[in-house]
Amino acid sequence: MAVQFPLISLRGIKFLPSQAISRAYPCSCTRGISSSLSLSLSQKNRILNEGVRNLQYASFSTVSRSRRLRGAISKGYFSKQYSAKSNSDSISSGVGSRGNFPNKYKDTVYFGYKPNVFAGKEEQKKKVIDCLRNERKSIPDGSIEDEVYRFYDHIGLDDYYFQMEPMEAIAEHIEIIYAAKVAARASHAREELNIHVKNENDDSAIYLDSAPVTQMELDKSHEIEQAISKRYLDNPKDDAPSFRLESFTSTANIDRASTENSNIHTFLVTKCNFIDPSNSISSSQEIPKIAWVSDQTFLEKASEQTIQMYQNVMDTVLTRFGPAVGVFEHQQRSEIRLVIGYRRGSIMRYFPSISNLLRYYGLSSFRTYIEQFSNGVTIISYNFKSESFKNAASSSSVEELFDQITKEASLLYCLPYTDIDSMFTSSKLSIQEVAYAHSVRVFSEHVMNKLGSEYTSLSAILDHSNHLHVEILDTIKRRLSVLAFTRTKIHDIIVKYPQLVRMMFDQFYLQHSIGTGSSRRLHRAKPDLSSQSLDPQFITEISTEKLMETIQKTCANDEDVSVMEMFVKFNNHLLKTNFFLTTKVALSFRFDPSFLDQAQFGDPLYAMIMSVGNEFRGFHLRFRDVARGGIRLIKSANSEALNLNARGLFDENYNLANTQMLKNKDIPEGGAKGVILLNLKYQDKPALAFQKYIDSIVDLLIPNEQEQIVDKYGKPEILFMGPDENTADLVDWATFHARNRKAPWWKSFFTGKSPSMGGIPHDKYGMTSLSVRRYVEGIYRKLNLDPTKLSKIQTGGPDGDLGSNEIKLSNENYIAVIDGSGVIYDPAGLNKSELLRLANERKMIDHFDTAKLSAEGYRVLVKDNNVRLPNGEVVNNGTTFRNTAHLRYKADVFVPCGGRPGAININNVDQLINEAGKPKIKYLVEGANLFVTQDAKTVLEKAGVVVIRDASANKGGVTSSSLEVLASLSFDDASFIENMCVRDGKEPAFYTDYVNEVKEIIQENANMEFECLWETHKKQKITYTSLSSKLSELIVKLDNEIYKYEKLWSNKQFRNLILAKAIPKTLQKKIGLSQIIERVPEAYLRAIFSKYLASHFVYRYTTSGDPFAFFDFISTELAKVHA
Fold this sequence. Notes:
The chain has 43 helices and 28 strands. The chain has 1123 residues and is an alpha+beta fold. Among the domains are: 415-449 and 484-577, no CATH class; 581-749, Rossmann fold, CATH 3.40.50.10860; 765-955, 3-Layer(aba) Sandwich (Rossmann fold); 1022-1122, no CATH class. An eight-stranded antiparallel β-sheet has the order 3-4-6-5-9-10-8-7. Strands 13-14-15-16-18-17-19 form a seven-stranded mixed β-sheet, sandwiched between helices. It is elongated, with a radius of gyration of 33 Å. 48% of the residues are buried. Mean pLDDT is 82; it is low at 1-23, 27-109, 516-520 and 528-534. Keywords: NAD, Oxidoreductase. Belongs to the Glu/Leu/Phe/Val dehydrogenases family. This is NAD-specific glutamate dehydrogenase.
């Protein structure tokens, strides 16, 4: 009985609407195609992405036995005799078993591609014989005809080879094969024919290779696939040509005398020729959508069923982010096809990775096709004969095999290669185990305790309330982390213990796999690949104690134990993962972060998410259930920079989220932050990395209609994100994507959206700058300073949000501006009109008109070398000069509006203080996050500098974002679009009023905190930065207490009174307080309530020192309820 497979699993698929179809398929049947053919790949991808915005999230793969097939199959194409109507009806109605699926092509002659028939083959054969006999003369005359006839007629090479290759090349290939046979016979190793032919050019390529038998030959075959992928299939350039590939294996031995398998593999690569299909198809035939983006050869050779299959796969690829996988069977011919579609450019080296996976399971495709289409879709088809499964234990095991391959194809899309792949190619680990081990390695690299007991002892001695002590500990921690468990050391330890990795993966599989049922089986290939069967592993749960005992007994030393124990921590603290979803594009893991060492991470995190993809690794950390923070994307100029960024990635994420927690003192959300670190080869793929990072996190936040994940957290989660470094232009995509994935909170998912999507752009309205300026101007007001007479330097140029608005709002005398392009300096004062021009145009200082500099002024760009300054100093390297320029100038005011964290630190702060102990600057307002380390701030304050830290100064942006979130949660979808979305550049009246109230709230909050800081400093003589931290800590602590105090929240009248004060009046007037309370999640309302009370009390009563002040404050507010 033949094994039965579903044609396609369309998990909730929604096909492209007509307007999206016209974008994804550049032409319809009523228009010519020539205009579409000139589109670059990036333009095509943009067209596809526009179409996807209107689509529902879909997936495409084999399904479990009881799953019903959903969706619809497109109409039949080309032939009136073959119609897919019955197929569509069958699939849309659903099927309950593996019974009569519509992929059983019983009555068709051609299941895949039409046979190649080369009419000139006999004539060509004669010419080859003549060439070998009269021109090349390398084969004995008596053997020529026998070799040629065997090559042409007996080994089963496809006619496509003879049709594509010139006669001279065929003659050369016969010579090579003959020489290989002679060499094998001479060495008495007939089974080891060594045939490797490669002929590559820009438009085509041919590879002939001995059929892989030994591991060396398997590696060689993989090298060919990698070469094809790199040169022809994965070219990232916009104008890169498209290619198609046909690969086939000869059906008979090359050497008649050989008793071993001496077949030959042929790979033929040709450049695509996209044409107008209306010129190639008769008017009586229907033209499918796929034809408008297809290669001419594909249309000529593909069977009707193949075109329909590919059409369905393409439609699915265009409606989702990741790959589409389908399994098809020809019942009479006992052939099975594995078809995989994906978007070109979304993954590299996918073809060789999938081929490697099939070899791991002992599967050999007798024909492989790769088709690239002009709309950016690539489709791979592997064809298998029934003999490939002859050793399978039962028909169900074959079915399970392809179900497993489908899942692992999605894993390979996430991680097509890792530095642990050698464990896979040597069959020590499966692809799932390799992906798991790689994820644990990344996890360990960033979070394992690398500091030792000495650090813990020092931490216990030092005063954690002293910010200088905290900074010293942080510096020691960074240095110890570098010297302890490096990435290489962790990797080397993991690969030493494959048996432990397998054991730990079994436990991971038991806890988080989907649909394991009662059998608890895990399928692995047997070590002997030639057996071509699965080895079902029955696995049972093992206690943590037993796992630890096994690790202790197996590992050679304590270091090895420390690393392998991280697998136990990984499993025990993992709450949910998308690892077993077939629709994933990157791996994501949600952890309970209680395992983090308190000596390293003093303040406990609420949640930790790790995301791992081919192009990146990343984290999202938050300190509260309701929390928000930006997503930062980190680039690295070289391998050294990448290693440096990787070493501090988790610590930087933690510190940024913690700083965000302190900064969010006026808003309901706690602190959160996300970081994405690009892998070295993908520095040019920031958008792709961001998209995969976001999609993988969304996997954990919303239920999948067709596939469930094991959720040990057990409660709904909502994340609030925003833009940060290198992600500002990507937040619209994230919002669209959340909507397409049916996330109910899509409107509030990201702040920083474009106004057309309801966003309030910080740069346009200067939201962050409004709070920074309140502190700068507050200092001037308190000290009776005239800003026009003050000199000023600024990092972060006129191209940035904060930098441009600071220039627009300020009236000081700028003497230096430092940005990404370089440094511009003029002791006589930079031309303000020129700075304003750049700020309005959002251009860096490399566009500054140097004719407007004085004789003593200069500009040094990062690309400059050996530049002589007006004072005679020579700048050898522009980048080095830029990186330290903020330390060289003397000015009254310094406002950092951009730059990397720690730009001023304990190691360089002395450059800002002269020999007499006098500082070069008088007032520093830290607009950029973490620009000055705490120990450096302490040094500056002791020298007499007034320092306002970032958590106080730049909170305007987070306030604006929080109020944007509140509006998103308060409106329903229709009202949100009507009142918050700017259309055709025209703001709705409500939007304008709301933005103005947001500005007022930002300035009011900044004024409250500034006055509190100034007066408390005057009375208690505590530095401003210490006070800022103290205020934040007091507010956060009191906020937690109020949030948990049920009695206050349960007083409905009091609760509503506070909410009425905290929620913007414009919003209440438009929607009504009762409607807002009904729509906004209770946890969020409760956070508004507690944070408003906490912040207003601390700002008002911090200076009193009265222990009963909070009682008086609450009593006063409660009295208003009864008034």
